[in-house]
Amino acid sequence: MEIRQLRYFACVVEAGSMGKAARELGVVTSALSQQISRLESELATRLLQRTGTGVVPTDAGLAFFRQAQLALRHVDEAARAAQQARLSGHVSVGMAPTTAAVMGLPLMLAMRERYPDVRFHLVESLSGHLMNMLNARQLDLAIVFNSEAGRRWSVMPLLDERLFVIAAKGFKGFPKQKKVRLAGLTSLPLVMPTNMHGLRSLLAGAIGQQDLSINIAMEIDSLAMLMDAVGAGLVATIQPGAAIARLPDKAFLMSEISDPGLTRRNLLVSLSDDELSPAGLATRVVMRDVALRLVREGRWTGASIHEP
Question: Full-prediction pTM beyond 0.85?
Fold first, then answer.
């Protein structure tokens, strides 16, 4: 199998047509078709299916296409690294909004300092969406909260976050204690994300175990808008301390929720080591270093380093 064949096949899938791909590659259609046929013969499976408008990948072809993209990207990055004689390439990292609020900028600064030639791509999205992007090979690494990792992922427990009830200063009914149990929050009107968020599922599990009833007065699936509602004094919320990282903390009241086991674990998840590029492997080390430094310096409110 040749790298050229992988490039030809990937181009055909992306173009959806042998003719279009041949023009993009600067080869004749017959030569391109011959290379694809050789590839299919070597793999002993059909990769492309003809349609009335062009070609589409079979199930086997789609699986091969995803891995071919990954291989080609690594080949290109290896070539750039060799040319520049220092680490280069491209890496895609995913973070949830609360994580990005604390860690996003410090990570960017650390990457620029250590690996200025690595093209850094940061995606901010929900933890569940980040896992889907990892499965689709659209991300190399992510910090997520769900331990149900894919079989070929590398998973590293990173840190644990305590949860807080948060409200604007002067909010009526806010607990006066520095620590409070969920049972003491049943009458407090709360804004929370919907069930698609891991945080809501974590809270629902704790509430269910204690047979409590919590007053969810509002649901918002955007951290910025959710905290706008809290800052305006409309409702309180339950969030990790990172939720106010981009906000003036003096404008908010916070009380730690002390129910046993009610913490959110942050997992550093990546493609397996044999799939991760040199840039990805280096970035994983930087991500861990930055997260642990932020915790040790007290810049990640409510977070503690995970102890196995």
Answer: no
